[in-house]
């Protein structure tokens, strides 16, 4: 497939910006993506660490299989955010679909086994599924500049602080903040994003 390339030059009084737009297949290889994944109807499914661990383990697997580079993440009670970049010929749409399908299946397996009260909130009864874990059409934004990458890193790391789950970003366990602020290597799949 041929890539389309369009350049746009934006001039402000003090700065010249050159923004390059490419088709989505090329973007996924050249740029990192910021994604937001939300639990269906903002259900607090991810309050329990065992569900957060499913997400972390899946990110680790994708990294080991060289499908993605994971730069940053945070897993909140009702959603999670991450910055990742596709590797090789892997397409973001395919990797993201597989990742969300696998994590949903693993979480749903536990909820069904335990007859969780969350099941009522997750009941959708569509043609292809009875239950749904994630909202459809997760937000995905290609990160084209160092400034935007650093803005999203701060947004990710300060999410638990804003939610009053901790006082400082590095205090929250399910986040890459300790990796950036303390050089903590608990999440071995993380790669430092220089922006």
- Note the overall shape: globular
Structural class: alpha+beta
CATH topology term = Alpha-Beta Plaits
CATH superfamily: Transposase IS200-like
**CATH architectural category:** 2-Layer Sandwich
Residue stretches low in confidence (pLDDT < 50, at least 5 long) are 1-28
Query: Biggest β-sheet, characterized?
Result: 4 strands, antiparallel
Order of helices and strands: EEHEHEEHHEEEHH
Number of strands: 8
Helix content: 25-40%
Tell me the fraction of residues in β-strands, as a range: 25-35%
Strand line-up across the major sheet: 4-5-3-8
What does this structure look like?
By secondary structure, the chain is an alpha+beta fold. The chain has a single domain (5-182), classed as Alpha-Beta Plaits (2-Layer Sandwich). The protein has helices spanning 24-30, 49-64, 92-113, 119-122, 146-162, 177-182; strands at 5-11, 16-22, 32-38, 68-75, 79-86, 123-126, 129-131, 139-143. A 4-stranded antiparallel beta sheet has the order 4-5-3-8, with helices on both faces. It has a two-stranded antiparallel sheet with strand order 1-2. Strands 6-7 form a two-stranded antiparallel ribbon. β6 (123-126) and β7 (129-131) form a beta hairpin.
């Amino acid at each position: 497939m041929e890539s389309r390339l369009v350049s746009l030059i934006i001039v402000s009084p003090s700065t010249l910006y050159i923004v390059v737009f490419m088709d989505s297949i090329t973007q996924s290889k050249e740029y990192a993506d910021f994604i937001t994944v939300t639990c269906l109807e903002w259900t607090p499914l991810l309050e329990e660490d065992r569900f957060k661990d499913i997400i972390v383990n899946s990110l680790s697997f994708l990294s080991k299989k060289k499908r993605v580079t994971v730069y940053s993440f945070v897993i909140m009670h009702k959603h999670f955010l991450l910055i990742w970049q596709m590797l090789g010929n892997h397409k973001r749409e395919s990797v993201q679909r597989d990742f969300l399908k696998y994590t949903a299946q693993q979480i749903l397996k536990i909820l069904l086994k335990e007859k969780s009260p969350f099941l009522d909130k997750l009941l959708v009864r569509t043609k292809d599924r009875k239950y749904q874990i994630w909202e459809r059409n997760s937000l995905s934004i290609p990160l084209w500049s160092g400034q935007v990458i650093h803005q999203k890193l701060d947004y990710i790391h300060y999410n638990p602080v804003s939610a009053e789950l901790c006082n400082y970003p590095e205090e929250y366990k399910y986040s890459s903040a300790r990796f950036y602020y303390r050089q903590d290597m608990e999440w071995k799949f993380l790669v430092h994003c220089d922006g």
